[in-house]
Amino acid sequence: MTFITRNQHKAQGQRNPGVSPKTIERLSVYRRTLANLPASTPFIYSHELAAMCGSSAAQVRRDLMVIGTAGCPSRGYAVAELIELIDKRFAGISSHAVALVGAGTLGRSLIAYLQRRYHRLSIAAVFDKDPDLTSRVVYGIRCYPMGELRRVVEEQSISIAVIALPDASAQEVAEQLTAAGITGILNFAPVSLRVPSGTCVVDIDIAAALDKLAFFARTGRDQYLREVMDESRDKHGH
Amino acid sequence: MTFITRNQHKAQGQRNPGVSPKTIERLSVYRRTLANLPASTPFIYSHELAAMCGSSAAQVRRDLMVIGTAGCPSRGYAVAELIELIDKRFAGISSHAVALVGAGTLGRSLIAYLQRRYHRLSIAAVFDKDPDLTSRVVYGIRCYPMGELRRVVEEQSISIAVIALPDASAQEVAEQLTAAGITGILNFAPVSLRVPSGTCVVDIDIAAALDKLAFFARTGRDQYLREVMDESRDKHGH
DNA sequence: TAAGCCATGTGAAATGGTTCACAGAAGAGC
DNA sequence: GCTCTTCTGTGAACCATTTCACATGGCTTA
């Protein structure tokens, strides 16, 4: 994947506290982790949350600063309050409706995945150009033909879209989406979308993610072998 | 998504030319883009490749430095040579076989997606704990029960795995994978995997990606965001 | 009330990554 | 051959993000 998000944060003069994209991602993870906590855990320390999220205590505290922090030195952070503060920082998100373009294998699995696992943003409509699929209901969501995109997006105030399509048509679809008023696109197609300024694109490039993994896994194994051969005495836990 | 990548390339003190993960991802994108070029384009300039990949000319040149650059000032880069150099940098990747754990909706769509679109790494085996699926063939790939994981991984020298599962079992599966000798995991489950040092994990967190998108798409409507999230400016003309 | 502990919040330093800017090279036109 | 143009390759500057380190302050125990 790639996660080529290109946002150049310049001029954070005084407008907006300038939250970094990385921090936003982690806040999302923190929130999910916190929400899964048993009720028997009303408080949590930064190092505990860090361990659960694969982060570091300092990182967690730094991230939490942007939501107006609320930790108490001896108890840690109040879980419920944290969730609430994160939600407040994300305020408005819950009102976003999502459109999915592409009801193929990937599209359908995304519907299933998000319906099960994600409750703040929901898929409001599915679009596909295959006439066999349109005007049917896929996993409980109505599938429209592409021609109705603009109408449905406007009627339902949809602001973000997921592109789950083979490359060829992704750019064309992105243009239709932005023309219909979409301001955010989650793109699974392995192409770089050109969109008007003001529209945000997040790419998930599975092939690139695999390449990256293969590259580092290889060197990782070399490193492992090197360590094993060098000395077999000292095991480092971490 | 998130792309919380936790690959501990700590201590790359002086070993390994120290290529950054971001550069590796982009090289993967460059290679794919180059491979799709028509034969009528034997040479390409850094700014052309940048425009195609949503990057900048300086970034492209900087990235290409790590593969031992080969550009000619007046012609640009020889496409075929570039591909070859990138492959050399990724040397060994082509020998990686991939295991997929989870033959549910997401798993199956990944098989289809990768079979169609990706030719350097291929899925060698699928594993699932559902007895209805195992010992069947899914999209042309044999599906084994979890119990055979270790044997198959060893027999086929599989070194990287994809986890396409609901959260609950992901950690457990990660442990089985690393025990079987896997050194790289592409994780779609929204949990933070704990793996032994030397194993590389790349997370694709679709829910976090959507959150990030929603956050920036929302603010994207503001004047401020226009500047911050700019996508297509910066890709200059020249 | 005082002392000890431990975790927070946050400047400041370190690290990682991107962009700038320019020297140098190679073709094009004259 | 000389000059003009335009590109590459790369040191240096710049910016973003992470980590360090410590002052601060609440809680507990006595």
What do you see in this structure?
The structure is a homodimer of 238-residue chains. Chain A is an alpha/beta fold. Chain A has 2 domains: 21-89, Winged helix-like DNA-binding domain superfamily/Winged helix DNA-binding domain (Arc Repressor Mutant, subunit A), CATH 1.10.10.10; 93-205, Rossmann fold, CATH 3.40.50. Chain A is 43% helix and 16% strand. The first copy, chain A, has a 7-stranded mixed β-sheet, sandwiched between helices. The first copy, chain A, has a two-stranded antiparallel ribbon with strand order 1-2. In chain A, helix 1 runs antiparallel to helix 4 (79-89) and helix 2 crosses helix 3 (57-65). Chains A and B meet through helix 1, helix 5, strand 7, strand 8 and strand 9 of A and strand 1, helix 1, helix 5, strand 8 and strand 9 of B. Chain A binds a DNA duplex (30 and 30 nucleotides) through helix 3.
Query: N-to-C SSE series of chain A?
Result: HEHHEHEHEEEHEHEEH
Biggest interface, chains and residue tallies: A-B, 88 and 90 residues
The assembly state of the depicted protein chains is homodimer
Biggest sheet strand order of chain A reads 5-6-4-3-7-8-9
Low-confidence stretches of chain A: 1-16, 224-238
The averaged pLDDT of chain A comes out at: 85
CATH topology of the largest domain in chain A: Rossmann fold
Helicity range of chain A: 40-55%
| CA radius of gyration of chain A | 21 Å
- Which percent band covers the strand fraction of chain A? 15-25%
> Please, how many helices of chain A?
8
Helical/strand content category of chain A: alpha/beta
